[in-house]
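ugh ok fine here u go
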Amino acid sequence: MLSINNLSISFNDTKILEDVNFQVMQGEITTLLGSSGCGKTTILRAIAGLQREHEGTICIGNTCVSSKEVYTQDREVGYIFQDYALFPHLNVEENIAFALDKLSKKDRNKRVNDLLEQFDIVSHRKKQIHQLSGGQQQRVAIARAMANKPKILLLDEPFANLDAQLRYKTKMWLKNIIKKYNLSAILVTHDKKEALSISDKIGIIHNKKLLQFDKTEIIYNKPVNYYIANFLAEINILPDIFVENLGLKIKNNQIAIIEISKCNLSNKNNLVEIEIIDKSFCGEYYEVLIKPKETKNNDLIMIKSTLENINLEKNIYLDLLKEDVKVILK
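structure:
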């Protein structure tokens, strides 16, 4: 459905993105992840035709939309902005109908009514935008983006302005809508949990490059380097003493990592005895900072533990499994 090939973008003499390549199949939800300012939104703008100056090609279906000859053509994309970009002087149904000027009045009214019903905002049709809650405004924005029946939805931080509970409900609702209508969608976010829960594929952008692009489970379980592993999960870099005791072989350009959730404390004699440097109460668990008893203070490991069944007066060991350790590039 969408193919990005060797996409590079510069602003004046500053390179923003360099040789970005990925594909989105029909019905897939793809998320672009990265820190603020890494170029995620710029990619969406290029796909939508709002960022015209770039190198490389952007193809939707069989049409290369980055060609100058097709810039004015309908790209069949719907764009949902972070701030929704709704027109404050138009009411709900007028906002949704705004992009339907090519339809007859009868067809336009039918399409608007269908969308109002589909997105459960019929009772708000005559309301002004400022009279709606954040969640209602977002539904209007999505309805407007889908009014022309796009093949691809572009979503720029679509849940950023919602509280946690509404964010979760809206995320699942939107995912079901995208799957129901077999759309392709590209989501831009810096929220790793959001990306993992909604995406079929994820791309990580850092230092102008698309570092890794793959199915969600693969990129999570097999990150190609430390930046990606640390971006997607809470991890510890294992000190050398653990690497040696586990019998791991690593090269100079590699490190051994393990997820915090797979690190446990035990009073049973294990590989390496540890000492607790600090513990902080966090409600359901403690954040516990530990270090191997035999090493220097910079060999620190963070653990989340309830500390149940741990006798702090006795010897304490780090309990982990060799198969949970990943050896990756630095």
